[in-house]
Amino acid sequence: MRSLHIIGSRELGGAESFYSRFVPALSNFEGQEVVAVTRPGAMVAQTLPSDLTCQGVPMRSGWDLASVVSIRRLIHRLRPDIVQTYMGRATRLTRIPRSASAVHVARLGGFYKIDGYYRHADAWVGNSKALCDYLIREGLPAQRVYRIGNFVEPPAPTPASLIGALRKQYEIPADAIVLFSLGRLIPKKGFSDLLEAFAALPTHIGGRPLFLVIAGDGPLCTKLASQTAALSIEHRTRWLGWQMQTTPIFHLADIFICPSRDEPLGNVILEAWAHRLPVVSTDTVGARELIQAEDNGLVVATGRPDELAGCLRSLLTAGPTAWHRLAERGAHTVRAHHSRAAVVGCYVAMYEGLVRR
Q1: What is the rounded CA–CA span in Å between residue 148 and residue 129?
Q2: Which of 87, 103, 126, 173 could anchor a disulfide with 132, C-beta 3.0 to 4.6 Å?
Q3: Locate the Glycosyl transferase family domain: which residues (predicted)?
Q4: Whole-model pTM?
């Protein structure tokens, strides 16, 4: 079976990270011929393996008619069975020619506007129950809405020497407890709430200094840096910028925090679990989908830095044994429900069913 996978993003985010994992994994699945379609020079294109067939389409905006024509020609030339699009721009620009037999699958990772962007597809994938319920409420036919979760790859080990070098590079003491968070620096990710919560925590826990590490970039970069200074926590907060390789940073950390105000699923929670980190998250739709409170993670109200600080203080005081228990339960969740084989298998089964119709 041949499938085209079209994404129009230039920067990296959750959807792009999933794309960069899923498309190569699908290409390695028996009987699957995969073509990646990205914007030339896009960051997601740089994450794909060199042996994967790739095509470039500008997709400059959601109104790029030249790209509509380019995609139609690509479909006509390659004759795929499935055309899967990711995010609004790629989906809006993809219009299957009437002469083609391809099935258009739109994959959504958020509660986006349907009309004008997604309704013209033939089938839709949501990565959570809440998202699939939303798609059906918006009038999409339930029999063509599929719930398929995300997966994360098991991380490679990080040498202790590299972790030591990173601590030295970022001026983090060897005995420091490291709280870690990552994502786009945009309002819905809740980093301002995280900074307030961190400012309410003691500087030391059990005699060990407490540090906050945030990896990511975005329009709030300057504002958040100013907030850090205003809260007088700049000396123990580290801003790493966007990281192409996050595994060493996960392995540097002791506890992962997802402070989002809105998160349809939360790939970062899965990634933290895969790296065997305990997770503290706000009570988003995505967190409720993944976390069983007090079992594989801890959940606090969104937009409440005081509650987040209290939860972190309790977990930090409980010590490494409690951290390890949460981390192991999270790792078990990933192995049982969010493995590569399980998720890719669900997509292939969906493709086969759609093509047979």
Answers
A1: 9
A2: 126
A3: 166-321
A4: 0.79
